[in-house]
Amino acid sequence: MTDEFNGRCAMFKSESYRFQWRDLGDIDGGRPNLGSLVNVAVYRLMQYSLRDVLNRHLSVEKATELLREAGRLAGAEFCRNVLNCTLPFNEFVADLQEKLLALKIGIMRVEKSDLDKMEFTLTVAEDLDCSGLPPTDETVCEYDEGFIAGVLGTYTGREFDAREVDCWASSERICRFKVTTKGEG
Ligand SMILES: [Zn+2]
């Protein structure tokens, strides 16, 4: 595949492609009649079908890792482009909560926080990725794990790990994430 098509550089189909916020395009201009909103089922259709294919072609472990890595990339770009990174920590978290709510991603709350250790327990109710799934004994929100780590990592300049310990899918009816700085906790 050539990098040139109709005189324009290839984007998604270039080996050197790296996602940036602006690649989301001019959604309002591109969808003047349909607008920027879509049904949650369509979002899940995309994510779950992708997981199916990644699981089968790679492995469950690799698929999980890749979904988490993609979430981290999304969280970093979300932080840079949607959130106000100049705010002090508590106001930054309030901004994050507000934006997650406004975009209908989920209802986030800080359950515990230790600012000295930079360790947090966050909950997300009505999570876009999993709320309403049939109960199993597994947590499924690896994309969210990466997203949270990406947001906090970009804001602080440190590396974070987020692990989901409870999930709607694990019968808890809420997603709960333990967040630590990487390599600690
Ligand atoms: Zn979950």
Which features would summarize this protein structure in a list?
binds zinc ion, alpha+beta, 5 helices, four-stranded antiparallel β-sheet, two-stranded antiparallel sheet, Muramoyl-pentapeptide Carboxypeptidase, domain 2, 185 residues
Summarize the structure in words:
The chain has 185 residues and is of the alpha+beta class. The protein has a single domain, classed as Trafficking protein particle complex subunit 3 (Muramoyl-pentapeptide Carboxypeptidase, domain 2, 2-Layer Sandwich), CATH 3.30.1380. Helices cover 40% and strands 18% of the residues. The strands form two sheets. The chain has a four-stranded antiparallel sheet with strand order 3-4-6-5, with helices on one face. It has a two-stranded antiparallel sheet with strand order 1-2. Strand 5 and strand 6 form a beta hairpin. Helix 2 packs across helix 3 and helix 3 packs across helix 5. The longest helix is centred in the middle third of the chain and has 23 residues. The chain is globular, with a radius of gyration of 18 Å. Bound molecules: zinc ion. Zinc ion (ZN) binds next to loops.
Shape: globular
**How many discrete structural domains?**
1
Overall structural class, as computed from helix and strand content, comes to alpha+beta
List the strand order in the largest sheet: 3-4-6-5
Compute the average pLDDT: 93
**Main sheet attributes: strand count, strand direction, barrel closure:** 4 strands, antiparallel
Report the CATH architecture.
Answer: 2-Layer Sandwich
